[in-house]
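Re-run with default settings, no changes from the original entry. Doing this only to confirm the output is reproducible before filing.
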Amino acid sequence: MKKKVFVLITLIFLLSAGSIFAETGIGAAFGYGIGGSNVALSLDIDAIPGTVQTVSMRFNSNYFGIGITDDWYLIDNVFIDDPFGWYLGLGFYVNMGFSNDFSIAFGARAPIGIDVTLLENQLVLFLEAAPSLGLGFNPDIYFPDWDIAGAIGFRFYF
């Protein structure tokens, strides 16, 4: 019961927060990369124009991880004809992992993707690949921390 109330309150908060910021997009993404699969909250916040943020979680029986990305779209164009588009960007990531040891990694990424805009620009479906390269600590420093992540998701704009 408490879980249902928490989810309901969270949804009400997200919907009301979305109406405060014009053109705010909130959605979900499901991804897979060399580092494993994840589920993510995908945000396109009008307060940070031209960028898309994600907060992701990875987990299995003996691992839990949290990741944050922020991507700036250098190219965001119509592909062939409306509603199809494509984008290419640059961004950064920070990943933290909790298993036997705490690990953290950060670096740069370059997402490239395609999207479809539906429902009078209120719903965007996307598919992307994002190669990344960075530095990690587990507890020793290691380089490279690299991945080629793919994601499929959606954002609903208020």
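Strands lie at 25-33, 36-44, 51-60, 63-78, 84-98, 102-109, 112-118, 123-137, 141-157. The first strand starts at residue 25 and ends at 33.
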